[in-house]
Amino acid sequence: MTQTSPTPVLYRVTFMHTPASPFTDPDALHVQEDGGLLVENGVILASGTFSALRAAHPGVDVTDLRGGLLLPGFIDTHVHYPQGRVIGGLGMPLLEWLDRNALPEEARLADPAYSRAVAQEFTRSLLQNGTTTALVFGSHFASAVDILFSEAERTGLRAVAGLVVSDRLLRPELHTTPERAYAESKALIEKWHGTGRQLYAVTPRFSLSASEGILDACAALLREFEGLRFTSHINENGAEIQTVRELFPGARDYLDTYERAGLVTRHSVLAHNLHPTGRELGAMAEHCCTAAHCPCSNSALGSGFFPLKRHLQAGVHVSLGTDVGGGTGFSMLKEGLQAYFMQQLQGEGGVPLTPAHLLYLATRAGAEALDLHHLTGDLTPGKVFDAVLVDPAPQTPLRAVFDAAENPARLLAATFATGTQGDLTRVWAGGEAVYCRDRSGAALHT
Ligand SMILES: O=c1[nH]c(=O)c2nc[nH]c2[nH]1
Ligand SMILES: [Zn+2]
């Protein structure tokens, strides 16, 4: 990634963010109309009204973004790098979808030329959608994961990613051994963990495809290296859960297959968790791990409704993920809206989500899940300037709402309800403009 400019810039724009959680703090949403954000060396130095910041910093260059709405860069906590080209495999439950749709494509990433093209599409798709940090489910091939990290670092995406490891029940070319999984992961960790914006996540695909030996190899890596993250899948689909039960007769439940290997910690993010037991929720809360909720995928694969209320009541942290390609695209706006829909559809059993909840789930909740909230996830001074500008073009549905809005809260609600990638015109990662589109629709970066 190119160096950030050391020259300070004062951004003039209405901005919103959630430095706290609306699930616990009714005043979590901060709205600054005609705001100012002073950014230097990629870091936010000061924030407030534009007039106050202008008075305090009269000589600083101003970038005028009035007419738009600035939000923190989105944080997608579950997205599969090798699945961008198989979005849209509708009409199948999880295990059939894996066999017929996802795994044949994942096998193609053995070819470095193929994986480079896919990595470029993937990083571009995330940044164009305003996602500046992602917990990425990598590839089964170490060469493809190396290429992903180099593309992420080149484009400015903060990727928390790793080699996906499995040793049974997928396809032979996607299987490895505990020894090879350990050795290849270690080499990637030594090269990429903490390099630039990149971090490493130890990633067994799911217990269905992982022997105890490979889970132990994952645990050895977590013990050996500081600050690694851990991610996998859990409790997504009835047939999957039943198979895991048969494969681990000694385990109390699905979570226990990871827990007894020492894989469930503050740095663990488990995707889905649609069908948890009370014990699993209690243990997840105790270990301070996160459930990544992926509502578009859950709908597309018919996997079920996410029991958000039970997670919150148990004290389990929840973040949001697109789960491309089980999910339907890279938009965290669409994902937030689908989360809202699915809670609405549960009636009394659902949690009524406000636009503040959706913004929190799409930004700060992900930063907390990844233990990166000291760096990103909101726009308070001291944070890195990871941000996205919503600035709908004239004569578009969202522009009509923006122009008519009587208060800024309407802007946020409408952004989630009807905003698309086409309404996002600028994205910054670490203060650097990593995506920029002019009013004609021409992409100027990435
Ligand atoms: O939604 C999912 N997508 C996947 O690729 C996958 N692999 C295991 N379990 C999974 N669930
Ligand atoms: Zn997934």
Automatic annotation (TrEMBL):
Cofactor binding comment, as recorded: Binds 1 zinc ion per subunit.
Example GO molecular function: guanine deaminase activity
Presence of keyword Cell division: no
Keywords: Hydrolase, Metal-binding, Zinc
Assigned EC number: 3.5.4.3
Pfam families given in the database record: Amidohydro_1, HUTI_composite_bact
Pathway connected to this protein: Purine metabolism; guanine degradation; xanthine from guanine: step 1/1
Family: Belongs to the metallo-dependent hydrolases superfamily. ATZ/TRZ family.
Protein's UniProt name: Guanine deaminase
